[in-house]
Amino acid sequence: MMNLLRNITLIIFFLFNLILSAQTKSSIKQIAQIEKEAEFISTDRLGNLYIAKENFLWMYNKNGDSLYAFNSKRYGEISSIDCSDPYKILVFFRNYGIIHFLDNYLSENGDPIDLQELGFDQITQACLSRENGFWVFDQMRQRVYHLNDNFKVTHESVNFMQWFGKRLNPSFMIEYNNQLFVNVPEEGILVFDHFGTYIKTIPLKNLKEPQVLDGNINFVADNQFCQYQRQEMERVCSPIDFNKLTQARIEKGRLYTFDGKKCTIFKTN
Question: Which CATH superfamily is domain 30-267 in?
Answer without folding.
Answer: TolB, C-terminal domain (2.120.10.30)
